[in-house]
Amino acid sequence: MKAPIYVNLSEARKRYHVIPSDTHKGIQGHALLIGGSYGKIGAITLASRAALKTGCGLVTALVPKCGYEILQIANPEVMVLTDANEKYLSEIAFSLVPNAIGIGPGLGQEAATQIAFHKFLSTTTKPLVVDADALNILAQHPTWLTLLPPESILTPHPKELERLIGKWQNQEEKLTKTIAFAQHYQIIVILKGAPTQIVFGKDFYENTTGNPALATAGSGDVLTGIITSLLAQSYAPIDAAILGVYLHGLTADIALPKTGYQSFIASTIIKYLGKAFLALEKGE
Length: 284
Description:
The protein is an alpha/beta fold. It has helices spanning 9-13, 41-53, 68-74, 111-123, 132-140, 158-165, 171-185, 219-232, 237-259, 266-271, 273-282; strands at 5-7, 30-34, 58-63, 79-82, 100-103, 128-130, 153-154, 188-191, 197-200, 203-207. Strands 1-10-9-8-7-6-5-2-3-4 form a ten-stranded mixed β-sheet, sandwiched between helices.
């Protein structure tokens, strides 16, 4: 097996795009985040806020009706579309034309949601980030994996990965199976963990930022928002994955001396994204 490519400051900086001085929100990318269900609107709230704080010009969230007021109050900068259903998504339909789509945070696995997800996959060609319950639905319907646009980014935690590729005996087998899985479906897989690894083609990358503070509820939802935002800003999928994972981890490294491990939460990642970008730009 090839040695990993380490995602360090140099690797991140060579992928980073400096924002032009004459840009405006209309050309800074439009990200669409799809998810949420009764009791799990916080996940899509975090993902959409993270997308905004990563530099996206426009962000829209598609949620069930129960999420409308929550999102409008929590994230006034985010535009909101709602499903006809009150508690979960029963249809994934929109007239806007996003530059990238993230789907899964808080989505739930209702039968109607699964049908809507299948219809969505059958028609979308947009750069895609797939997370959380969207991954669990794919694990239940593995033939749907063939519907994913090439270079879609999947972001499973270990249990979600196991549902997709089966059990493994050791880390080498886990990586070997993930590489074969990613190559078969022509996708990018981010293996969330310590350290987080990224599989693309025959290559795999290992992130060098982050610490145990990131082991907190909602951390993955924030990562989905970050990567979707970068995709919407025209980053190549592998660059969005690498840069997103690096920045996500860097926020925890910067924040830790002030927050400690215990009080660091997913919202803290979003709070420190600006400082992470500044450190990246300065080469620190």
